[in-house]
From TrEMBL:
Protein's organism: Candidatus Nitrospira nitrificans
Domain of life from the UniProt record: Bacteria
Any one GO molecular-function label of the UniProt entry: structural constituent of ribosome
Function: This protein binds to the 23S rRNA, and is important in its secondary structure. It is located near the subunit interface in the base of the L7/L12 stalk, and near the tRNA binding site of the peptidyltransferase center.
InterPro entries to which the protein is assigned, alphabetical: Ribosomal_uL6-like, Ribosomal_uL6-like_a/b-dom_sf, Ribosomal_uL6_a/b-dom, Ribosomal_uL6_bac-type
Protein name: Large ribosomal subunit protein uL6
Amino acid sequence: MSRIGKKPIAIPGGVEIKVAGSTVSVKGPLGKLDWSLMEGVDVAVSNGQVVVGRSSDDRQLRALHGLTRAELSNMIQGVTKGYERSLEITGVGYKAQVQGRTLSFNVGYINPVIYQVPIGIDVKVDKQTLINVKGVDKRLVGQVAADLRAIKPPDVYKQKGIRYAGEVLRKKEGKTGK
């Protein structure tokens, strides 16, 4: 059995889990998330716990078993505490501005780069150089943070660009003169 998949998940107070056919819905104080179950994986809710099972022991189902358990755990944490990812903008004149659901970046290109924030994600810009991405879906928060970082990845020589908060970059040496 999958070591991750066989662990039961405790359901905290204020969280409601419903299994309808092949869909699991998790509802909590911060929002609601849905997950489609793969064929051969089943979810049971009893005694304040969620238990994930599988119908056979083949390799793909073992992987899906652990994946489903991890996703449900992430969903429960997302609707209770939420997820947050922070990014820093480094560089002279580099800045970001938020206007409604649109982010505008001035990061060394001729025109500002415009990014539409997906529904379910809250973005806050502090001091024009710190970006906080918050949401209930762990995968979506990580993807939005990765998309924002990809607008101007950090340069290995001058270390200018958008990076995750606390990300350690290895600085390369420039050319040496003769």
